[in-house]
Amino acid sequence: MARRSLIRAGVSALLVLSPAAVTAAAAEDGGDPDARELAREAERNLRDADSLRLVLTDRTAMRSSDRLASMDLALDRRGDCVGTYRMGSDGGTFEIVKRGDEVWMKADWDYWKNQLPGEGEEAADLVRDRYVHGTTDERAFEDFTGACDLMRLQKDLTLDATSKGGRTTVDGKDVITLRGEEDGVPTTLYITADRPHVLVKSVQKGDGTDRTVRVSGYGEPVPSDTPAPRDSVDLSDLEKESGRTR
Description:
By secondary structure, the chain is an alpha+beta fold. The protein has seven helices and twelve strands.
């Protein structure tokens, strides 16, 4: 079994999250100037944040084991991150921790079974309940450099809206709703009513799409704890255990 394929399978699922997941509707001529201004202020604060926490729920992916159904990811502009990912159906879950150039990844049996048909049980038995540890200098983990880079995500984010709705609350915060479309899908943004105006929630629903992203943790440090050595196995040692070398 190729260790490189085993690890990169997990990375490929992580990269399913695109900047569009928290992008608002495109502004249209004749839209509400107040709505656009609120969205642009929230965009500036989103782009300027040193760290964020993103919680994604994609209900349209729940029935597909090869699609990302939910994610809880804290990341910062230094490239550090901590996250948990769940695939749809019985596709399993995996966790990641990245600190500097070091990466830890742990997946459950269902995840390896679906990502590596015919080899999943062998992979799960080999890794057991451990994190696989390596660095971004290793090809198996290099994709984590971009996936955990908040600056890369911020670069492509835009927040625009065409109309302003009423007020409500999200997670105990008073918010203003903004509406528009993205790629033809109705989008609702929830922006804090008080300054600083920040995005706390984005909902896309319609035309086969049902996705929610909650945004929090503006400027809060990414958890710094890393898995203990007894709970981890280095990628090179894992290759030795499998009887293979890179």
